[in-house]
Amino acid sequence: MIARILIDNISNNPDLAAEWGLSVCIEHEGRTYLLDTGGSDAFARNADALGVDLSNVDFGILSHAHYDHADGMPCFFRRNPDAPFFLRAGSGENCYGCEDEMLKYIGIKPGILKDFSSRIRYAEGMTKLAPGVYLLGHSTPDLDCCGQQYQMFLKIADQYMYDDFRHEQSLIFDTEKGLVIFNSCCHGGADLIVQEAMDAFPGKKVYAIVGGFHLFETPGGQVREFARRLEQAGVEQVITGHCTGQDGFDILKEVLGDKVRQMESGLTLEF
What pLDDT was estimated at residue 1? Predict the structure, then answer.
């Protein structure tokens, strides 16, 4: 399996863009998967520079319904006329965050879900995309506590409620080395996502987790506790960036050492 980071917050290559967002292209057993599209069409320009042909993607996946992962979707649909694009059931154009004590819309660009409804599929439970490849939503109840912590909200009818991340899902590959999990922001907690994956695949270990961990505003002590939980779970590779933040990354590196690797635009991973 080969995974290429098409766009991340960081780029050390002058020919590749960086933005607050994430997009990953994964090749596995003769099929190609695109996880997220960043916050613009920059992921596609980077794909061109990296020699990645988006028209060859077999499955598109949205990790969660936030703009910095979804707003490149129209560009992808123009580049690829056929691939279905999977969102978690419960996804909508209704996500908000609190900034300077004001609610700010942070969701999918309004109109995308209607304009491209023929391409969009909604996944429930554990959804099998191909042999050894699955989408998994949260099974842990009451994750609105995470929405409260991050001051993120869903607008349901005319009411704003703490986000329970019903719209978040992981892309999981069952490999010979163990489970490889891709989850772009892990709002529910990367350690919880690891546990949910192990519960869904009894007897399987998690070999690697790839994505942002939403630690950029998390106190250092909590990050260290989180890192130790990943270590106790036996995760062997942690590839992270985007919303993890530099301080969070540095602490993960301090605790987990060489198991941790920094994501950046253009990074190629082999599992």
Answer: 96
